[in-house]
Amino acid sequence: QLQLVESGGGLVQPGGSLRLSCAASGFTLDYYAIGWFRHVPGKVREGVSCISSSDGATYYADSVKGRFTISRDNAKNTVYLQINSLKPEDTAVYYCAAGFTTIVVVPTEYDYWGQGTQVTVSS
User: Fold this and answer.
1) Cβ proximity of 79 and 70 under 8 Å
2) Which band of pLDDT confidence, cut at 50, 70 and 90, is reported for residue 9?
3) Is pLDDT of 104 > 90?
């Protein structure tokens, strides 16, 4: 069974940090671009970052640039999203997704999705 599982979300104060993980089972992430998306009920799903399968090229949305860092550890079949300097507006469910695509954050380009992990930024 092909599966992506996110973890690492939680409640954090503004200015804090979290590291989200996206672990794959049933397939190898090496050949896939991995994207991170976030969704707030009532709003459009936002693509925040992605990393290519080949050369490690990355993309960040303007809203997270300089605060979020995406990385991959192919040996662990896991992709990470380090999120620093968290703001209340970062509150959302964060999803990772895998697809045979380039570094784009277009949801339809991704074939496999995790179930999401909640990030809440509040004092």
Assistant:
1) yes
2) very high
3) no
The pLDDT, as a whole number, for residue 101 is 87
Residues 27, 21, 11, 88, CA torsion sign: negative
What pLDDT is recorded for position 78? Answer: 96
User: What pLDDT digit, counting tens, does each position of 19-69 carry?
Assistant: 999 999 998 998 999 999 999 999 999 999 999 998 889 999 999 999 999
As a three-state string, the secondary structure of the chain is CCEEEEECCEEECCCCCEEEEEEEECCCHHHCEEEEEEECCCCCCEEEEEECCCCCCEEECCCCCCCEEEEEEHHHCEEEEEECCCCHHHCEEEEEEEECCCCCCCHHHCCEECCCEEEEECC
Give the separation between CA 117 and CA 8, rounded to whole angstroms.
7
User: 26: Cβ–Cβ under 8 A, 6 or more apart, which residues?
Assistant: 1, 2, 3
